[in-house]
Amino acid sequence: MNSARDPRIAIVGAGLGGLTCARVLQQHGRSVTVFEGEASADARPQGGTLDMHPDTGQAALRAAGVLDRFHALARPEGDEWRVLDCATAALLAQQGPSADGGRPEIDRGQLRGLLLDSITEGTVRWDRAVTGVAPLADGTCRLLFGDGTAEDFDLVVGADGAWSRVRPALSPAVPGYTGVTFVETGFDDCDTRHRDLARLVGNGSMLAKGAGRSLVAQRNSNGHIRAYIALRAPRDWHEAAGVDLGDQRAVRTYLLRLFDDWDESLRYILRHSDHGFIHRSLFVLPAPHTWDNVPGVTLLGDAAHLMPPVGLGANLAMLDGADLAHALVTESSVDDAVRAYEGIMLPRSIEAATGSAKGLDHLVPATAS
């Protein structure tokens, strides 16, 4: 990119996609600032385990120069799926891991930590909540902060997730409820305290499904298993059922009743979890989700193409970040770079969104299979 000075680039959101973009830019000697509303890197848990695909997540890690560090942390054996019969817990199917360890698993928190460690200290400005952006007539963009201040940049990248504060500058789209809710819980010290569950889950992930109900359990690192009770239900299912989500005993009782015809070894997930139940309604952006190019601003990851959590979102966010950074260091102007990036990312995301919707239908079928 030929210019009298490096462009001023701001990334909103210190998630996987935004950090990948920042890392690749810095590898090429470009300046970038990441703004994050959370107070610190450990302000909240980062979620479960992710499988990194060779042509998306791993390709982004290679572009970021951290693929070797990823492999040192990843769990190739985690690329295993076991499908169990909901009534008997009998093994119906088993897949992976692939002989070449093609999609190794890694805890999201470990991956984020790896990327944070790879960027220049001070790149992320913590506790800097963004409230919106204002594209300016000269092709730059003004970033508006919660404390009433503002800064101008040549490019603002919205990497701030499902409820992006940057997206409205490009698109009126808002996420809609999928009709599926996950209720999350977890188990610690599984190989000693929860041996039977550990055997049921295996080295990777376990799925059992019935009509409108599924149980998913995934191995994480350090002997932890994270489990998801997936329900096809209205967003206010708990209100209709008279269940206070803050009353963990009431939630447990309701879920046990809902799964009363399932095998008792699977109901163990509902009876004996070490953690409380966390309610997560699943939202998606309309598909296709596109926009007309606006100088000075673009989106990546969930801010651009929020999809069901079936294994593509993090991979695509990281590839988005790497592709955008590559365009910014190879194209002749910021505007050319953004157009080139959006020309690749938007068609790719449309195809992925279609596949993810089918994946959610497979994960939580509306009717018995």
From TrEMBL:
GO cellular component terms, A-Z: cytoplasm
GO MF annotation list: FAD binding; monooxygenase activity
Keyword Oxidoreductase: yes
UniProt cross-references to Gene3D superfamilies, sorted A to Z: FAD/NAD(P)-binding domain (3.50.50.60)
Residue positions binding NADPH: R44
Any one GO biological process: response to antibiotic
The entry's keywords: Cytoplasm, FAD, Flavoprotein, Monooxygenase, NADP, Nucleotide-binding, Oxidoreductase
Top-level enzyme category: oxidoreductase
Keyword Flavoprotein belongs to the record: yes
Cofactor requirements of the protein: FAD
Catalytic activity: a tetracycline + NADPH + O2 + H(+) = an 11a-hydroxytetracycline + NADP(+) + H2O
UniProt binding sites for FAD: D51, R108, D302
SUPFAM superfamilies, per database record: FAD/NAD(P)-binding domain
Self-association state and partner proteins as the record states: Monomer.
Family: Belongs to the aromatic-ring hydroxylase family. TetX subfamily.
Described purpose of this protein according to its UniProt entry: An FAD-requiring monooxygenase active on some tetracycline antibiotic derivatives, which leads to their inactivation. Hydroxylates carbon 11a of tetracycline and some analogs.
Protein name: Flavin-dependent monooxygenase
Organism encoding this protein: Streptomyces broussonetiae
